[in-house]
């Protein structure tokens, strides 16, 4: 089971349809994991200001060299804005050659924290069971 942060709410309420995005980064070098996680925490601080962000959890499996996020958005446009947001782009460029990243998204009629985390945990477990090639 992954360790996870507390829920970090964004400015959107999540009462209507949402888009959930699960990211899963595996570090090629275990010594990179603290720096990768710290970068995620830096982005997390800005969450309350991101248009279309309902909120997120960060998660980590240190012994597996894995960390990532479970982010909830109002829609795909909000997720695309985040992906193109300069602080996010800079972090992705800095770490892209230090491991592999997987992502999974789905839509839900509304945000239910327990259901969302359970489904995300299932995605992470399935990804862990699958063979993986780590790029350097």
Describe this structure as you would to a colleague:
The chain is of the alpha+beta class and 136 residues long. The longest helix has 17 residues, at 113-129. The radius of gyration is 14 Å and the shape is globular. The protein has 4 helices and 6 strands. The chain has helices spanning 33-45, 76-83, 86-95, 113-129, and strands at 3-4, 8-9, 18-27, 53-61, 66-73, 99-108. The protein has one domain: Alpha-Beta Plaits (2-Layer Sandwich). Strands 1, 2, 3, 4, 5 and 6 form a 6-stranded antiparallel beta sheet that branches. This is DUF3291 domain-containing protein.
How is the secondary structure organized here?
Layout lengths: L2 E2 L3 E2 L8 E10 L5 H13 L7 E9 L4 E8 L2 H8 L2 H10 L3 E10 L4 H17 L7
Antiparallel strand pairs: 1-4, 2-4, 3-5, 3-6, 4-5
Estimated radius of gyration: 14 Å
Output the structural class. Answer: alpha+beta
Counting DSSP H or I runs of 4 or more residues, the number of helices is 4
What CATH architecture do you see? 2-Layer Sandwich
Task: Output the keywords.
136 residues, alpha+beta, Alpha-Beta Plaits, six-stranded antiparallel β-sheet, 35% helix
Short note summarizing the structure:
The protein is an alpha+beta fold and 136 residues long. The protein has helices spanning 33-45, 76-83, 86-95, 113-129, and strands spanning 3-4, 8-9, 18-27, 53-61, 66-73, 99-108. The chain has a single domain, classed as Alpha-Beta Plaits, CATH 3.30.70.
């Amino acid at each position: 089971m992954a360790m996870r942060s507390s829920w970090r709410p964004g400015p959107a309420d999540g009462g209507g349809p949402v888009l959930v995005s699960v990211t899963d980064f595996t570090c090629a070098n275990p010594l990179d994991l603290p720096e990768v996680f710290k970068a995620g925490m830096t982005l997390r601080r800005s969450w309350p200001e991101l248009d279309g962000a309902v909120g997120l959890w960060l998660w980590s499996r240190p012994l597996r060299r894995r960390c990532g996020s479970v982010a909830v958005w109002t829609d795909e446009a909000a997720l695309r804005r985040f992906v193109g947001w300069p602080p996010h782009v800079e972090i992705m460029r800095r770490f892209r050659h230090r491991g592999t990243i997987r992502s999974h998204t789905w839509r839900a009629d509304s945000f239910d924290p327990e259901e969302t985390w359970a489904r995300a945990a299932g995605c992470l477990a399935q990804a862990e069971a699958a063979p993986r090639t780590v790029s350097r």
